[in-house]
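Methods — Computational structure assignment.
A single polypeptide chain was analysed. Its primary sequence is given first, followed by the predicted tertiary structure written as structure tokens.
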Amino acid sequence: MPGVKFTAKDLSNDHRTVFEKLLEIFLEIMVHTSGDVVEAFDWLEQIDAEHKITTKDYTLEDFKRDLEKLMLLVPDKDQKGLVLGAKAEQLIRQKSLEQVFGNLKRDVRGNHQTKFRAETGESKEEKRNYEFGDDLNRIDFQASLRNSQIRTGIGPIDLTEEDLEVFEADHHSRLSTVLMIDISHSMILYGEDRITPAKKVAMALGEWITRYFPKDTLDVVVFGNDAWQVAISELPYLSVGPYHTNTVAGLELAMDLLRKRKSANKQIFMITDGKPTCLKMPDGKYYMNSSNADPKIIRKTIDLAIQCKKLGIKITTFMLAQEYWLQEFVEEFTKANQGSAFYSGLQGLGDFVFEDYQKSKKKGR
């Protein structure tokens, strides 16, 4: 894999078992190899030969057997090889979460408060007078009856609208997000692996939303010549192909997915490293132009940005390149949608995604 380099770290104070040390490295390699177990063990052998992680009492064969015992590796469908088990996939997502968002603060309550009043959410102690249209389930009947008695004295209950008090409710915004990931060939060109950081961010975002914002939704779309949806569990196996960049197909699928979501707050995150270069025509053929900013392809892409704006869907673009010819397209695209754009290095990608997600939640759009 181009651009991948493992360096030694000081293990003198590392009191983990050999298995634990190998497991950390193995899970990292599995993301880079897109789930290829055989290739991952080839890499692991090279790393072990250089850094002497195993011992005479615990070899890589012992490690492999333990992975199978713990069902971190399971037989594939044909019973001819091994693949990641569900437990291993979960560990990879957890590891990605720690790597990408580990140094950032989280809202452990699982919700983001906004300044708006709402009729859903957990009641809190603050109360106010009843207003027409309030949810009747929020009436504090004990306080309301007390108000009636104060007004009328002891006697038959005479409860009026003026006596009613209701619990205030915090407004907890729900947010539906589609994360678009570019899997065109350029994501591994020029000696730089851009797809692995993108996969890690996607896995971390999925794990983070599941843990801390269970009411939110995240769908993942990959786009090359075409676009298709992938499950969070499939992300470790994601790889680039000999594809061009059909941003239009990705946006169209993202819009279709968001139309099905009931949340009023919807957004698209797009991680890419280049301009759109491909369209699929009505006859099924592909129109491609990688050499220039093709007006036909760019216009269609901008039109979709405008459509998203009309639908209230904000698009945030994370551009993994800073070439001057990309900036003009990104600026035009962002202006059309009135969204946001970041020219991000690979190391800072997770921070940008996290911060923009937090901002979207706080706005309660």
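Note: The mean pLDDT is 84.
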